[in-house]
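Deviations from the work plan: none for this task. Representative record:
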Amino acid sequence: MRTALFLLLLLAIAAVPGSLVPQRSSDPNGVLQYFTTNPELAPVLDAVQAFDVYTSAWFSAIYLLLFISLIGCVIPRTMHHYRALRGAPPKTPARLSRLAGFTSVEAPGVGAADAVESARGILKKSGYRVRLFDGPRGELSVSAERGYLRETGNLVFHTALVGVLVSVGIGGGFGYSGQKVIVEGDSFANVLLSYESFLPGRFFDDGVLEPYRLSLDEFSAVYEQENPAARGQPVDFTASVTTYAPGATTGTPAEIKVNDPLRLGGNDIFLLGNGYAPIITVRDGEGNVAFSDAVPFLPQDSNLTSIGVVKVPDALPEQIGMIGFLYPSQTELETGALTSNYPDLLNPVLSLQVFTGDLGLDGGIPRSVYSLDTDGMTEVAGRTVDTPSIQLRPGETIGLPDGIGSVTFENAAPDAPADDLSNAVPRFASLDIHRDPSQGWVLVFAILVLAGLLTSLFVPRRRVWVKAIESADADGVRLEYAGLARGEDPALERAVAEIAERHSQQLGVKLNP
Amino acid sequence: MTDLLVSSSLIAVWSAMGVYTLAFIMFTLDLAKRSAWAQETGEATRSSVTASRGQLAGAGGQLAGARATSTIDRPDAPRPPLSLKFERIAFALTVLGWVVHTAAVVMRGIAQGYVPWSNMFEFSLTASAIIVGVFIGVQLWQNIRFLGAFITGFALIALGLATVNFYVDVKPLPPALQSSWLVIHVFVAVLGTAFFALGAGLSVVQLMQARAAAAKGAGLKFLQTLPGADALENLAYRVVVVGFVFWTFTLIAGAIWAERAWGRYWGWDTKEVWTFIIWTIFAGYLHARATRGWRGSRSAWLSIIGFAAVLFNFTVVNLFFKGLHAYSGL
């Protein structure tokens, strides 16, 4: 018990640093940022695994020791309890008078055998396990015990904790999670290559990926318009998708919402983010279409001011790179800076900084599609050069400086009335796709934990004895009642009194003279 | 209609705070009264029977309630009965304040059309109502009105801080919170918090009793009218155990919700970390009760530290730690 207590408290303390320092598992960007803001301290912390507290050697050591001590405690207790469950209640103590709730009453005209038999019946009906004993001086007694469920619950609780740990471990080993960004109208096939990022467990085998397909038909976002205190606050996000079983040509419509994932092909598909993906077309200096695609822009604030990057490796004579800001409802701050004041497309404006030069895509180094390395490039439009950033509204085209080409911000809904731009920019949904083969087991064990806890804390375990001693002088017996708590049992005395009450009533004896 | 309900709710909050203030004063006066009573009757006995001093402290420590203490078998100096008038008034005011407080919670809920615990203001508002409600409800089972000053003081501070610093207007429920788990998970968490609060209050009094007993009757005089350290420890245990069950459920329900909303049932988000820490501390408390040398004051400290961690989880973790549980502008 002392070991368990010590390890529990140690575990509580060891968990604290993980909430003070960003963790790679839950906040990888926070860790990168920590390294830039604390260049001295970060490597030291990293050396003691402070950015991976919950998988660190020291944290694991504590909980593994705790579980070893738990198992070492539960096994002998289980064997002991098994014997107790099969055995009968122990012998009635010689003296009951020192035990809890001791009551004694004279019962004239009652035989010891009858008295004990009736007590046995009452106790049995109250859920006690009973056994009769003959005392050395001719007294008869019932020894009764109840509440074995208390210890059973306790053992179930502790064993289920081991179950949770084991199934969490298995799930982490065989499961995986991946992310995918899909623009409206696009589709996704569940194969490894389609994922933007993919985090497999240690024993992952890509044979478990069921090759279903899923297309994003429409993403609808509803924002609060009436309430002035919450204007622009999201009210609903719905991704309407069509799913295709492997090999199927006809699909089934489905919806994915926040808090309402889609379960498909052994996967759980969650809607975790969304944003705009403006369709941008770039023509190079020779008039050829060098690029035309919907480019997901990552939202930076609640009004969806978004940043995106366009890379045009095929542009001639030089590669073109652009860093863009999309303002769904553009407005100008007093400082002259642009911003968005509403997340919907009321006044969409795309602003682009343009670079030419080497995009660095041929070096074999993996590059993020969301960032542009401008080191080997020359800015031709933007903040540091004479030509300001390009500003475009949906449907507009503008020529790039020096005749290197042109950029078009395509209107995705060209047939809509001129003042309705609400569908001019497609939206994207970012989906998290998970497989966790053991999470059902985790749930089962968690429920067992709770059930075990409830029974182990609230089922009282107690022993009760009723003894009938033949009186020497008169015909009749003296009845004695007493109980013993096994574990926390504040209601013991009341329970003994109640049994004495019922017993004496049944025998027709007045309990309180 | 919404505006009317929201403003009525706020008026009710301020009214409840007013009534709680009166209740707090009355509870404090009750403690003062108890001290005075213990002082007077204690001195009377001391002058006549000097030998019974230790016995008095011992008896005061073992019997629950003032009436029991006043019937201590001491024929030469019978204690006059302790008047509990202030306590009765204070408790009545607490019930009144709670009714008004609950009305504020209900009006806020109706005004916005969903449960009133989706941001820090609403959570403080509802949680303090539930804590006071549990305090009132527990009286049906055990008389622990002597914690009244602690509970009303706590509710008062929670309401004051929330209304002044965290007030936000009614807003639509963000998609992340649109789930029935918001109702279950948070409500049970608050229930757990309420029982932990009572447990911590009892443990504090237990420590004071233990100290007074060690110093042979020194310390605050009103302690002589309260249950002894052992009785308080048992009470605290029974209250904390209920809190622990609720907290375990909160943890599991939270994991189920996290799986639906974030795609993983456990991700060591800061709030998850602290919920786990609190669970572990109270698990330690339960083990401490069965460990030699840890019963008594040490386990009382664990219950107090556990409740401190609950408060820390709600205040510091919400306000200063980065995590997924931050929504809707507090």
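The first strand of chain A starts at residue 100 and ends at 108.
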